Amino acid sequence: MSTTTPEHDARVAKLTFAGVYPHYVTKVEKKGRTKEELHQVIEWLTGYDDEKLQDLVDRKVTFETFFKEASLNPNAHLIKGVICGYRIEEIETPLTRQVRYLDKLVDELSKGRKMEKILREA
Known about the structure:
58% of the residues lie in helices and 3% in strands. With 122 residues, the protein is mainly alpha-helical. The model has no long low-confidence stretch (mean pLDDT 94). It comes from Sungkyunkwania multivorans. This is DUF2200 domain-containing protein.
């Protein structure tokens, strides 16, 4: 089983959502998707509505806090594949796996996947 290093996991945990979020918005908008669709994907994964997302950005929370406060979707385990060189289902550290879930969803959105596929409905 390939896994991340403790150093990698520590770096991921310390990243702030506010620092990464604008990159998510840019990535999806460059590919013709909307911030609303991005929010829909984030809400599906975490349970966060627009107001809560803005609160998390304003508070500059780390990904550790971001996922600690989240209500992870029970179907999140269906998110599989490779992102940032790691196979998601093989990542042993729960927080790093959750961050990669989010990265993968943003990636699928920017690649034009149908929303029901991204949200693991079909």
